Amino acid sequence: MRTTLCASAVELRQGTHVKIGVIASIAHRLPPRGYGPWEQIASTLTEGFVARGHEVTLFASADSETSARLHPTAPTGYEEDSRLDAKLWEALHNAAVFERASEFDLIANHFDFMPLTYSRLVSTPVVTTIHGFSSPQIVAAYRAYDDIAHYVAISDANRHPDLHYTATIHHGIDLSRFTFVPTPDDYLLFLGRIHPDKGTHLAVEVARRCGVPLVIAGIVQDEAYFREAVAPHVNGRDMSYVGPVGPEERDRLLGGARALLHLISFAEPFGLSVVEALATGTPVIATPLGSMPEILRDGVTGWLVADADQAVAAVSRLHLIDRSACRAEAVSRFDAERMVDAHLTVFERVLTQGGPESRA
């Protein structure tokens, strides 16, 4: 029978021995080579937990790299190898975690709703970070386990009114991986999934109207959209597409940009590229949907705009933004150490007190 822990949150953060199982997504390896925000956060947290002295087992693809004990399932991310059956490997992946649940004081779930379906079968508490709702239908799964679940929201904007939450914890990044650039080059940047929701076409329109070169980076998630709305404008000079980018190129592109154009048309749960841009000193021009008003300070770390016309006007006002203030905001609000601390505080609360505290 597992002993209930009585350490304070501070003690947990400073190294009280806790056995943590981390369930990561197996869409991509950890840390991701390019795209993979869920995987990046799970990796950052895992390394942070290990650094604080905890005994951590990471359930991830076999090609993942970690300082924790790696329990491999799929040979690689199924998004990176089309021969892999995602449904099969996800089933085996989750089963591997819960067959070993008694080995852990707590399971940290970064795998969406599927692990919840195992959670009544074990006594080990499961803390689930909800990275977003891929469709309205999956809320039913979260609702079905709300009475025993410990949910963490990644922004207040992404809290669902039907669910109880233990905390909201904004994502954090390893600031040492992002270089502050006080004087940028002369280009705008789009960095993210190339999909209508992300507004790649609006970034193209804004850059063309401003007469400023645009660099487009990211995976093509909608081939028809890319072919019809983006590719015809790419000429390799004032409009270039560089594909998915790894950590070093990501840092270079973000730091060199006058601004990151993040003209989304959906309620984005967080937006990791936004805080990465701030870490390099680059302001962000974004649509005020989802978490954007929570993350950005209008007129201080960028501009919140309603449409392309306002975005064009915002580009002309970028000289009013202090790039050092953008970096300072990333340091004070979005550092990985702060995120690790916040998660360990939640773990302490769950291990000593029990259930969720608030309804959205």
Write a structural description:
- Helix content is 32%, strand content 16%.
- With 360 residues, it is α/β, with parallel strands linked by helices.
- The strands form three sheets. It has a seven-stranded parallel β-sheet with strand order 3-2-1-4-5-6-8, with helices on both faces. A six-stranded parallel β-sheet has the order 11-10-9-12-13-14, with helices on both faces. A two-stranded antiparallel ribbon has the order 7-15.
- β13 (284-286), α9 (292-295) and β14 (302-304) form a beta-alpha-beta unit.
- α2 (37-51) crosses α12 and α5 packs across α10 (308-315).
- The longest helix has 17 residues, at 336-352.
- The protein is globular and about 60 Å long.
- The model is unreliable at 1-10 (pLDDT under 50).
Q: How would you summarize this macromolecular structure in one to three sentences?
A:
The chain is an alpha/beta fold.
The rounded Rg comes to 21 Å
Shape: globular
β-strand percent reads 15-25%
By oligomeric state, this entry counts as single chain
